[in-house]
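the two lines:
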Amino acid sequence: MGKLTLITFLPVVGAVVIAFLPRNNDKLVRWTALVVTGIVLVIAISLYPQFNTDMIGINDRNSFQFVEQHSWIPFFNIQYFVGIDGLSFPMVLLTALLCFLCIPASWGISKGIKGYHAMFLLLETGMMGTFVALDFFLFYVFWEIMLLPMYFLIGIWGGPRRIYAAIKFFIYTLIGSVLMLIVMLVFYFNVQDPVTGGHTFNMLHMMNQNNHVGNVLLNYRVLLWFGLYIGFAIKVPVFPFHTWLPDAHVEAPTAVSVILAGVLLKMGTYGLLRISYPILPDATKYLAWFLAMMGMINIIYGAFCAMAQKDLKKLVAYSSISHMGFVMLGMAAFTDAGMTGAVFQMFNHGTITAMLFLLVGVIYDRAHHRDINGFGGLANVMPRYLGIFALAFFASLGLPGLSGFISEVMVFIGAFPVFRTFTIISVFGIVITAAYLLWTLQRMFFGATNPKYENITDINGRELFTLVPLAVIVLFLGVYPHPVLNLMNKSLSFLGDLVQSATVL
Amino acid sequence: MSDLAISFDPRQLIPFIPELLLAGGLLLFLIVDLIIKRRRGVVSAFSGSILFLLLIVIALTGDKEVGSYLFGAVVQDGVTVFFRVFFAIGAMISLGIMASTFKNEGEPFILVLSSVLGMFILAGSNDLVTLFVAFELVSIPSYVLAGYKRQDPRSGEASLKYVLFGAFSSGLMLYGFSLLYGLTGETGLPAMAAGLIGIDSHAHLVGIVLILAGIGYKIAMVPMHFWCPDVYEGSPTAITAFFSVLPKAAGFAALYRISPLIATMEPSLGISAVGLLTIASALTMTFGNLGAIWQNSLKRLLAYSSIAHAGYILMGFAVLVHPNTELHSLATQAILLYLVVYLFMNLGAFLVVDLVERRLGGDSIGYFRGLGKSNPLPALALAVFLFSLTGLPPLAGFIGKFYLFAAVVKAEMWGLAIIGIANAVVSLFYYVRVIRDMFLYDPSPAMEPQVSKEFNLGKLTAALTLVTVVPTLVLGIWWQPLAEWIKSRVV
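prediction for all of em together
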């Protein structure tokens, strides 16, 4: 059994084990979940030294790494086909890391511990599977597997309006994925396996345009592109499909918000890069302006919405929408800097937003509300909390020396020569971001201490355990981004060229 | 006539052995039922299951494609074999579900057996006369079964509605048959289909529409569906489980046999058969799903959901009458595979509803609220069935939908595909509503004392739950053997 299979299915095995553990032994359940996610993280990290950064992947089976390919349903030519390249490996690392840190962050959950952790591990399987799958059918199954645990995690363990938020999330995502199902079937019937001559779900065969035997007119492919785009855009979420996100975030428990913002949102842009870009390069090239424009709208719209929020968690949720806009803008440019910057931004946003949501959880556990105006002067009573909070906020607004700065600058450098106006407008997003983040910092931490919170306790060891690793990564990558950039450079510049060189019929 | 009598060769009856055996078993049941006095229901269910097991073995071992026999009245092809096995499995599970309700009564089992005998014959009917007789044999015992809760007026109402609608639609169908017979002078289906080519007459169109209406009644196709929610609600739940799958599948078997006739509309009349069935499919699924949203009774909800599922299956039939014959194999496979999947998930869902009704006293949504806490296992099983009915991977229902959508996409029927996926999303709403009530809500205060007690499943129900849950889970991940078997029946 290969390592990718192991990291994908170990969590679900853990979930089954947890289901059979005795009731009322909360500690055992938590530690089982921690150990399972810990092993997954260790295996994922152990791939790092073995990962050859010169191998491109994307559309070439031979340069994918840790490949496992077995026949699954020969009847439909469906394969169990997994492998990683420079695009998916950073996402696998991010997923493994965040899932591991989320278990201690869920220590405060008190009802239905077994169900919560089983669902959480099932979710990890879905996420890992989505990132490693190279067969479209397999990808789709994993993509859908994420829905069920997410529904229950928000619906059972969420806040007061959890039931509304959970069903909204569920229906939005399902609309996207059924559209994807249709497009997937169209590809299946249009694409011929070059060896057997039969139809195939193999994504790499779909990426070779010579295998497309059906209708290849641009209008038709643009339609397919939009079918996929809506599915992915709902996940990102791109304006105007974003309305589920603030609801889901506000109601979800802290750890679920972390996963939602840290990993699930990346599924959307990952799907565009993994599927839409290489399979429909001509349509992608034709619609690059559209992607860039939606990116710009996301940046500005998300930032303004964030500024208007009184609820700290909603503010962070809208800032996510804004920051995912940078990813869209960068990847629409197809330049090396733009593409690499976009995926690096995905990784950085994963770590930074995870910190922000964990920090929101810390204060919510103590004050039981998230009203930004309801704190004031926390700096005096929670100095350590302020330190980490400030670090995360500065990283989020793109302060030089922190990881967010690097990826945002790369996005701007990459996008500017291609989309001047969009990029210039987007830069204002940074200004708005700085404004709302600093204003929030000021309202929460400075001024006179709110007498209600004079005796509030500072951040504790368990919370630091979840936050410090992320803070170290944010600082380290801000100074020396090479270890992550190096992973993706080759793959992404190849992907950018692939789309750039497509002939638009 | 005398020629036929002379040329009759008893060996012609060999492929008919399953039907003869079932008829013989039925007679035996009638006699045994008079002799034994105690636990007649349990004995009937058990011996009936053994009979069906035997029939499955015979159907599979005598699995030869002998073509038409008995003067062309019956045909044995792969699809006949498929339906025999399908009906036998469905009947076994149905008998099991019924055994919990009718512990001491033999009659319902005998009625189910005779209805299933009709289905067996229907699956192989190759002639309008056989088809009609078999159709009535399926229906008439069902009317009695619907009214079996004699003390409950709703059950009587269900039975009466069923009879009236049934008689009306049988009349329509028969009239359709007579028109087509008048046009061609044939009753054999292949000869009739050949004879209809080139006949450009209003009678042709009217005949086909009337036949479609008659069969549409059995599968609850809009606009012939009005009886469905009331009959499902009024009938004893164990019987409703049977109604929701087996007679419906029999209707689809009939539609499969009739589909060559429907396809003749295109060359003869210039009316698109694909278009007609596309409209029927779209209306049926949309109406079923929209109706289900407002239901509070789980039985009614599942009744509307079964209308919606008939609509999904009709997508396959819309492809099956496509002029491009290359699409027919995939369409047939999709229909048959969906029926298998539907058998397990729908019977499973009714099994849990029946259990809750027997233990807690009702089937309205209030009885399910908070079930996840008081009785996690049945709640979990129901959640699996409902998610599967929605069509979410990795459950069997997804594979069924995947096949149907594959057929529709291959035929490039985009409009139907879009309507189909829109319906899948709408259906999520009401299925998840039940799951939400089971797991996300606490019991309502008024119902609390009734609902929050933990009940035991009973050995039989537990076994049946396993029998339905396991295929629902496994077929979603590994359906290769089933797909191969079905394909080998179809080609």
